[in-house]
Amino acid sequence: MEVVVPFSPIDPKSRLSSVLSPAERREFAFVMLADVLDALERTRGVPTPTVLSTAELDRAGNASTEVIDHAVDVPVEVDDRALTPAVNDVLASTEDAVAVVMADLALATPTALGRLFASDADVVLAPGRRVGTNALVARHPDFRVDYHGASFVDHRDAATAVGATVSVVDSNRLATDVDEPEDLAEVLAHGAGAAADWLRDRGFALGERADGSVHAVRHDT
Predict the structure, then answer these.
(1) Which domains does the chain have, with CATH numbers?
(2) 9, 45, 84, 87: which sits with the fewest CB atoms below 10 Å from its CB?
(3) For 182-211, how does the pLDDT look when each residue is reduced to its tens digit (9 = 90+)?
(4) Using an 8 Å Cβ cutoff, are 126 and 136 in contact?
(5) Are 187 and 195 in contact (CB under 8 A)?
(6) Is the Cβ–Cβ distance between 125 and 197 less than 8 Å?
(7) Nearest-CA neighbor of 6 among 83, 96, 94?
């Protein structure tokens, strides 16, 4: 099996720009990547992943060399194309199973990832909360990805269309990808890795709005 973790080091996580500076967004993206790689490393039976990066990691702007080195101690392959063609080239280039795990799954744990890898279906999908696809395993030679829009639905249909068996992993930890400011509350509440520590070190904590909803608030440090 090949395991790839797509990653974009240039101006990542733009939807967090209301709460993090450009430099902070870059560093936070690397910290989340480190958490994902650590969870994969601790998942039994999973081979060393490859980071599929849209650019050389040393072009990551203000993310320090120390942060990069801590985050990535695995092979890195640079492919500057969009996510869909880059991943489809990986699928087309091997007869082995391919797993794709997104780099912003800050809540991922070996237990949750173990469920993804344990299924023997031709295509295993871990949907995101916004109907995307946060992780998958593809064993069918004709299955290809399309990460636009409601990709979970598209991937389920694509697998069925090529005659592949499909399994869906219902996991809050794999469903939570960190893209929006409201996602930070999930990391603070449930995260046990470097991403949660990084947020707390920069003054983030859980807060309650007047309507009783919970969100991440930032205090001066």
Answers:
(1) 2-179 (3.90.550.10)
(2) 45
(3) 999 999 999 999 999 999 999 999 999 999
(4) yes
(5) yes
(6) no
(7) 83
What residues contact residue 120 under an 8 Å CB cut-off, 6+ apart? Answer: none
User: Whose CA is closest to 135, among 117, 111, 148, 153?
Assistant: 117
Q: Round to whole Å and give the CA distance between 4 and 206.
A: 33
Contact 202, 221 (CB under 8 A): yes
Over the stretch 60-100, which tens digit does the pLDDT of each residue have? 455 554 555 656 678 999 999 999 999 999 999 999 999 99
Confidence band for 221, pLDDT divided at 50, 70 and 90: low
